[in-house]
Amino acid sequence: MAQLDVQQKLEILADAAKYDASCSSSGTAKRTSRDGKGIGSTDGGMGICHAYAPDGRCISLLKILLTNSCIFDCHFCINRKSSNVRRARFTAQEVVNLTLAFYRRNYIEGLFLSSGIIASSNYTMEQIVEVARSLREDHHFRGYIHLKTIPDADPELVHQAGLYADRVSINVELPTASGLKRLAPEKSEGRIETAMQEMKTAIVDTADAKKRYKSAPRFAPAGQSTQMIVGADAATDGDIVAKASTLYDRFNLRRVYYSAFSPIPDASTILPLKRPPLMREHRLYQSDWLMRFYDYTPADVVAATDQATGMLPLDIDPKLAWALKFRGSFPVDVNRAPREMLLRVPGLGVKAVGNILSARRWRRLSLADVGRLTQSIAKVRPFLIADDWRPLALSDRADLRPVVAPKKEQLELFA
Amino acid sequence: MTGKLVRRVTLADEDDFDGWRDAARGLAAEAIPASDVVWQVGNGPGDLFAADAPPPPAPPAGGGFSVPRAFLDLARNVVLHSDPTRFSLLYTLLARLRTEPKLMEDHADPLLRRLDLLAKDVRRDIHKMRAFVRFRELDDGGTPRFVAWFEPDHHIVRANASFFIDRFASMRWSILTPDISIHWDGKTLEEGPGAAKSDAPGGDPIEDVWKTYYASIFNPARLKVGAMLKEMPRRYWKNMPETALVPAMIAGAQAREAGMITTARDAVGGNIELAWAALRDEAAGCTRCPLYKPATQTVFGEGPVDAQLMFVGEQPGDQEDLAGRPFVGPAGQVFDRAIAEAGIDRTAVYVTNAVKHFKFEQRGKRRIHSKPGAGEIEACRWWIDQERMLVKPAVTVALGATAARSLFGRVVTIGRERGRALELPDGGGEAWITVHPSFLLRLPDEAARAAEYARFVEDLRVAAARVGAD
């Protein structure tokens, strides 16, 4: 085979990396390169998306694999051993150079490096760590680094990854153990969870040490995250939400990413051909949001699913679905209700609720006031009581759903 | 004009927050109403009637009255907006704060709401500049300089400079915009006049590599153009090299996804048996609907995975539930007899059920069959869809209304659809609908039962004859 140049390798190894949903550069420590040494900064906040692709996804990091060769044969993965995909491999130096060239032109926030497993888990992990080491030590790179770690690698290597990276992640791959067994027979839920547990311990320990000694090294200041594929196994939305909530609790995860299974070239026959609607992934993210910022419990989200199928509705969001199931909790009085009830009102966001609480300390709010604090008064109206408004007819309607559900054309075109 | 005294304030620059603050303090201390103040920037044409207006009073010594920090944060942002009324709106708010000290906590107030929205525009523009500035490398006498051309919506360039210094302190760079240019030499920031796009370099060889990345990281199987446009509006595209690829990426996406599916459908590997066994094992642990709790076990389909003819029943009965195999109870025996009479080889067909767990009501010691609901059928469709995709039968026969509902995803009246070839909605081939064999067992009248049985056998014969027919 002819030698591939860097651009050809990039084509193969970015293509191979695109099934990882995360491209986030958020939540790390604040850094600059004002000292004149090296390059880069992080703002400690939400990170920056430097471009968007037509799949609607944010491009924040240079997201590539070191190599797409792999000794594993996971059926959902384009890079599995039995796939006929073209193979390529970057050297550590090539990845370093590419990252710096893109960063200098303000194309990216940093690097998200993952890899197929070649030779052994340890060898692969060493190569990944070497890229991060060179960026941090040889080039004083202060931008964002996300490293995918390999569950079976030597804990010492995984530890080094945490010292160089802002974020580390290990994918749980599938929401059910039976799904993992069928689609990724060489991976084990136990090994993945042990690795996540070790990572959590290291993150907590070094954060503790950092509090006591300023000189203590940083360890993955943006924490750890994971990803699961939706729609390739039999898990229902209820199962997935329960699994994600367990993961958040047990491993202190910053984020659980969902990736709607999508057809891949050269698919394995074990894989379903039909993909789940993209809207399903969106509804799962919305329910994740409700649990992280709106004080919903996993049981609340499960209550919003269809009882027989365990699935969240596709035509309305989970918050609205919950409200329509628990009509007895509404309408809520904007001038009296506690924060936790205001957060349950469809159409009221966290910020709007904060603004309502602050404004009503000084005066009573009318429906028009609420309208100035939120996107759509039509959505919140049936669920609210304001100084000049009671949703009499609306709140007694048996068929509220068609009134409040979004019109068809607002749904995603290809959902 | 009346004899009203109009004050004119001239600010040094569009983003002159300090000038605005000093003037506003003095005006507010003398309780001059907002309608009596004209704000202008530089030596613009201003308001003709205010030509001879006196300058604003000097700010009172000691800073005058205090305002909430939230107001200053808001004002710092709003001053950068391109809306010419921003100075006046901010002054109106400041004047009201003297009598309504808690106004900053009432974001439902129309004026504060309006200023909040202006501040939001500015924050977004600042963020988008950080995101969408694209430097091009210029060989500037040995040491490279990185130069960008950017067109912001608001007067944010000066306020945004520190972000680029934090990030690119060791580089030499320039950001050129229509109103102002900023230059960093590694130590100090210099300002220059506005520039034109042609003052910036026309290209950079790395842009081709970046475009390769942009095109490759895109997943054509999940096109969401609206989501892209919401965050990357078209007005920014002209200065972002990668966006030139977007139209072709969208146009090619559906063809690429269809290609993947066709390839996967056609290239059936030798591992289909394995795939089916793995699916059956996974189904054994299914908890997709509550029926798994009282039932003994999942009853999966059985038969050769390359069968041309597939029969779909309703759900396992009492005996199937105990045996773990489909079509072994009384209805299964009727079915076996009927297909034998129809001349069909039982070992060559694939038989399965729309619902894989036995649904029943306990009456004393007996478990009485209970019809699965729409939700249970829907929950179980995941399995039957997988089975159908693996086996890919030429002809599928739905036995009864539940099977038909599962296959077609809607309520089907057997009487109306029976006896003719139907097209499965998902490209799954040809389907026929007939009654479930248990229907024959329930007919009390012997003559009617014989007639219906004969009709059932005839249905099976006709459907089987369709295999390989065209």
Automatic annotation (TrEMBL), chain A:
Keywords: Iron, Iron-sulfur, Metal-binding, S-adenosyl-L-methionine. The keyword Transport does not apply. The lineage of its organism: Bacteria, Pseudomonadati, Pseudomonadota, Alphaproteobacteria, Sphingomonadales. This is DNA modification/repair radical SAM protein. Residues 60-287 form the Elp3/MiaA/NifB-like radical SAM core domain. Its cofactor is [4Fe-4S] cluster. It comes from the Bacteria. Transmembrane segments: none annotated. InterPro entries: Aldolase_TIM, DNA_rSAM_put, Elp3/MiaA/NifB-like_rSAM, Endo/Exo/Phosphatase_dom_1, rSAM, rSAM_sf, RuvA_2-like.
